[in-house]
Amino acid sequence: METVKFKTTIKCGGCVATVTPYLNEAVGANNWNVDLQSPDKVLTVNTGQQEKEAEVIKKLQEAGYKAEKIG
After folding, report:
1. Cα 55 from chain centre
2. Residue 7 burial by Cβ neighbours in a 10 Å radius (0-12, 13-18, 19+)
3. What tens digit of pLDDT does each residue of 10-51 get?
4. Residue of 6, 25, 1, 21 whose CA lies nearest to 68
5. Which of 12, 17, 33, 48 could bond 2 through an S-S bridge, CB–CB 3.0 to 4.6 Å?
6. pTM for the whole thing?
7. Could you tell me which CATH number the domain at 3-70 has?
């Protein structure tokens, strides 16, 4: 399984709570994490499937946030 990182507009614990059901639906619980200490608010997702990367971006947009793949 591959780790993919995204720069996001998720800013706080409340934002994480908002996106949790969306990301759990996209990649499953315990398969993602947001580093709120990072200036880029990096979302790390454990998936090796390219279609899942697009789904993560789509689900975050549905929740009202933006994500851009990095690295």
Report:
1. 10
2. middle
3. 999 999 999 999 999 999 999 999 999 999 999 999 986 777
4. 6
5. 48
6. 0.92
7. 3.30.70.100
